[in-house]
Structures are given as C-alpha cells and as structure tokens.
C-alpha cells in the first residue's frame, strides 16, 4: 500500500541526505562504497521499519533481488557499528535506527 511506500521513500530520502547521494544513486547499479553503504542501510531500515517482504524492498531499491536485501540484513552488525559512529544523536534517522535496533535486541536478534 501507499503508506508503506511513503515510509520507504522517507527512509531513502533520509539516507540520501545523510550520505549526500541522490535517489537515482540509491536505485542505480553503482557499487562504490559511498552509494553501497547508504543503500544497504536503507534496505535494513526498510526491513526493520516496514512490513514489506524482501522482494518488495528489493524492487523499491532499484529492482534488486531479494537475496541482495537479505545480504544487507545479514551485515547488520558492521552496519550497526557504522551507524552508531556516524549518526548524530537526536536526528530523525538516529531515532529511527535506535528504535529499530532496540526492537531487534528485545527479540534476541542482535
């Protein structure tokens, strides 16, 4: 539905602003780390903060296969470390990430 798409759009826009990349970069085939990291983080946040399936998330990030999204989610620990080091506290993205990871911790998935 549209509310979930808006949520992914908000996540992608936030990652674009945070990483200083364009939305076109986020859905492109570019594999440079300045694009890959925010794309992976965006996919992880989309998985954590929406009810969309991995294939749906992949489609929202440039038609990627669900295994690409799964790979990003499995890289949670290094990405989590990156996020805590790089995100400034009290920004909307920091609060989203904090909430998402707290939920995973409570579920024993961290």
Care to describe what's here?
The chain has helices at residues 2-19, 23-27, 33-49, 54-60, 66-74, 76-86, 92-106. By secondary structure, it is mainly α. It starts with a helix and ends with a helix. Residues 104-110 have low confidence and may be disordered.
In short:
By secondary structure, the chain is mainly alpha-helical. It has helices spanning 2-19, 23-27, 33-49, 54-60, 66-74, 76-86, 92-106.
Order of helices and strands: HHHHHHH
Give the DSSP E fraction (strand runs of 2 or more residues): under 5%
Question: Nearest-angstrom radius of gyration?
Answer: 13 Å
Gap from first CA to last CA: 29 Å
How many separate helices?
7
Mean model confidence by pLDDT: 78
Outline the biggest β-sheet: none
Q: Based on Cα principal axes, name the global outline.
A: globular
Quickly give the structural class. Answer: mainly alpha
Spell out the blueprint of helices and strands.
Blueprint: H1 2-19, H2 23-27, H3 33-49, H4 54-60, H5 66-74, H6 76-86, H7 92-106
Protein traits:
110 residues, mainly alpha, 7 helices, globular, disordered C terminus
